[in-house]
């Protein structure tokens, strides 16, 4: 049976591009590894944040569009995005978030302590200490590799049909069932990051797509051959995957599982260094070849944004 290594990336929708960069790059310390556009709507940025190289399992992406209506987190969506921080760094992160005006709450789930908070658009984020996973060598401000976010810890899925979503995780994606605790089912993969998925069992309101919600979660496929095999498997089991699409940095297909969540399966390669060197990731607006002739027009229409060091809020 095919088994995914875990989360490839998570994509969400927000309103303000600069606020988005300030939060994820300047406060959380992720590297902006790619500044490009939404291939389907080129007037909208597509921003990617991850570890120093944008390794699968570390990357969150955003479609920032000011005219977008506010969404509502609920069933049919990823409810919470979890990040792994190095062992013993919770106090550092609690203090850092507090100094930047971010309210943090602590919760325990499956005997792990999570620091929970929301981003400027209302997306729900949490940090969890784990020893597993390689360190992130990216540094910004007072964030250095000893405290930097390693990548995804996992995600919490708000399914309209938890048992159906669980079937997909186990029987199609190959995750292993771990157990149940406090109204959550837990599944895991053998990877070191992006490897723990919780399904919330308690009912909630129906999710409404818009700013402040996750658009989709993507799972890792090793290569194009494996992605094609998954497409055949999905068709055989009565799902309706899209054709395989070229996203420049990976190939991908999409399908809705029965709990209403949009799933993507994406190849690990070719990666973000396919069109610029690793040392320059995220600095320049990168366009696919078919839009290069419109660079001047697109640049004029997109807001001017950059990664910057933020002053901490005063007490």
From TrEMBL:
SUPFAM superfamilies: Glyoxalase/Bleomycin resistance protein/Dihydroxybiphenyl dioxygenase
GO molecular function terms attached to this record: dioxygenase activity
Keywords, ordered alphabetically: Dioxygenase, Oxidoreductase
Family matches, as InterPro entries: Extradiol_RC_dioxygenase (IPR052537), Glyas_Bleomycin-R_OHBP_Dase (IPR029068), Glyas_Fos-R_dOase_dom (IPR004360), VOC_core (IPR037523)
Pfam families the record matches: Glyoxalase
VOC domain mapped to chain residues: 6-130, 151-268
Record has Ribonucleoprotein as a keyword: no
Protein name: Ring-cleaving dioxygenase
Organism: Niallia alba
Upper taxonomic lineage: Bacteria, Bacillati, Bacillota, Bacilli, Bacillales
């Amino acid at each position: 049976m095919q088994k995914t290594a875990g989360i490839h990336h998570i994509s969400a929708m927000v309103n303000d591009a600069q606020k988005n960069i300030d939060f994820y790059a300047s406060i959380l310390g992720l590297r902006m590894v790619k500044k490009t556009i939404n291939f389907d709507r080129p007037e909208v940025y597509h921003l990617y944040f991850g570890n120093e190289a944008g390794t699968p399992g570390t990357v969150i992406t955003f479609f920032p569009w000011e005219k977008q209506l506010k969404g509502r987190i609920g069933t049919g969506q990823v409810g919470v995005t979890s990040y792994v921080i190095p062992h013993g760094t919770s106090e550092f992160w609690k203090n850092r978030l507090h100094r930047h005006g971010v309210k943090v709450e602590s919760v325990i789930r499956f005997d792990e302590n999570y620091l929970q908070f929301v981003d400027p658009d209302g997306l729900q984020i949490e940090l969890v200490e784990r020893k597993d996973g390689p360190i992130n060598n990216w540094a910004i401000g007072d964030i250095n590799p000893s405290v930097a976010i390693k990548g995804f810890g996992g995600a919490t899925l708000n399914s309209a049909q938890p048992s159906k979503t669980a079937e997909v995780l186990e029987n199609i994606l190959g995750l292993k069932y771990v157990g149940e605790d406090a109204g959550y089912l837990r599944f895991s993969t053998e990877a070191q990051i992006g490897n723990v998925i919780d399904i919330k069992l308690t009912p909630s309101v129906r999710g409404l797509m818009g700013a402040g919600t996750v658009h989709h979660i993507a799972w890792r496929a090793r290569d194009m051959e494996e992605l094609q095999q998954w497409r055949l498997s999905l068709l055989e089991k009565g799902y309706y995957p899209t054709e395989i699409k070229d996203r420049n940095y990976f190939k991908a297909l999409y399908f809705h599982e029965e709990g209403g969540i949009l799933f993507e399966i994406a190849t690990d390669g070719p990666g973000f260094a396919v069109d610029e060197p690793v040392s320059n990731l995220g600095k320049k607006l990168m366009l696919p070849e078919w839009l290069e002739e419109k660079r001047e027009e697109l640049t004029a229409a997109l807001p001017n944004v950059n990664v910057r060091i933020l002053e901490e809020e005063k007490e």
